[in-house]
Description:
The termini are far apart. 33% of the residues lie in helices and 16% in strands. It has helices at 15-26, 72-85, 123-134, 154-162, 173-181, 184-190, and strands spanning 3-8, 30-35, 93-97, 115-120, 138-144. It is globular. Helix 2 (72-85) runs antiparallel to helix 5. It is of the alpha/beta class and 191 residues long. It contains six helices and five strands, in the order βαβαββαβααα. It has one domain (3-151): 3-Layer(aba) Sandwich (Rossmann fold). GO terms for molecular function: nucleotidyltransferase activity. Keywords: Nucleotidyltransferase, Transferase. InterPro entries: Rossmann-like_a/b/a_fold (IPR014729). It comes from Desulfurispira natronophila.
Amino acid sequence: MREGIAQGRFHLIHKGHVEYLLACKERCDFLYVGISDCDPQRSYFSRRHDEAVDRGPAPYRSLQDPIFPFTFYERMHMIRHTLVGEGISPADFAVVPFPVHTPPLLKYYVPTSAAMYVTIYDDWGERKTKLFEELGFCVEVLWRRSMAERFTTATEVRERMRSNQPWEHLVPAGVAQYLQQSGLCDVLQKL
């Protein structure tokens, strides 16, 4: 059985994520979907991983507020709704924590024999690819695109939700329904 790994923050599943997840699932029999930034206090690299002077923790992304609006549990539900909504059986995937900021721990969450699928939009994508290769994963780059070629970002969708602009067309129907029924739309309005 071919196993693969998709990974990301998934701080709101949008249709760009759907493209990525389906491209990953197309390449394997069983897909592990790794959610990074499960714990906001552990969402930093030490400087040795960030190729900078050792001055304490270093964020790998912007710390714009709010950077952690959804819990691991909420993101897991969004991923499940998305994949099942796309016709993928729950028996063909698992959603797991993915501690990308503590790279030696990854082997405890996903099999190192599985193919690691990545997409590259920026320097972080390049660095992440190199990091996974150094850890011994077989990395497959699905595509390289500029940031301007992205479908959207979770930040854009969250900003639209907060400012009462149309956003539902940017996310899978099951995710929109989950966000509305669970009260998470209201939570974002208050951030």
